[in-house]
Every structure is written in C-alpha cells, then in structure tokens.
Amino acid sequence: MNESLTKLRSELFFDARKLVLDKLMESAWTHDGNILVRDLKRVIHRVESAEHICKLRSNANRSYASVTNGSK
C-alpha cells in the first residue's frame, strides 16, 4: 500500500531511503505519516527534519569509520 505523504515528508522519506542505499541505515519506511529508519545497530529513529537526516548520516559515517579503522 502506498501512503500519501506531504511534499516535505515525501522529500524526507526520499533522503531516508538514500541513507539505506548508501548502506548507512538498515531500512526506512513510513507508518501513519511518520518516517522511520532502522540503523545498523537495529535502533529505530523517527525522522522529523532534514537536520535529523544529516545527524543520522554524520553519526553513521562516524560509526562506519571507527569500524573500518579498527580492523586495520
């Protein structure tokens, strides 16, 4: 089923799905107009703004860098 989202929420969901495609998040979905993402530690976050997407991306990049640097 395709959920109707406002233009802003649709854009946020697009950005959330981009995090998944970039392998920074495990999954992204919507429920009752809310945008949800599951990070690689399986913690679910509700996306409220573009700033939140940036923060999730930054945190995921930092976590990814610490894992890859630690394995060398």
User: How many domains would you count in the coordinates?
Assistant: 1
How many strand segments?
A: 3
Strand content: 15-25%
Query: What characteristic shape results from the CA principal axes?
Result: globular
Order of strands in the sheet with most strands: 1-2-3
Average of per-residue pLDDT values? 89
Radius of gyration: 13 Å
As residue ranges, the low-confidence spans are none
Structural class: alpha+beta
Describe, in plain words, how this protein is organized in 3D.
This protein has 72 residues and is of the alpha+beta class. The chain has one domain (7-70). Helix content is 50%, strand content 24%. It has 2 helices and 3 strands; from the N terminus they run αβββα. It has helices at residues 7-21, 50-70, and strands at residues 25-31, 34-39, 44-47. It has a 3-stranded antiparallel sheet, covered by helices on one side. The longest helix is centred in the last third of the chain and has 21 residues, at 50-70.
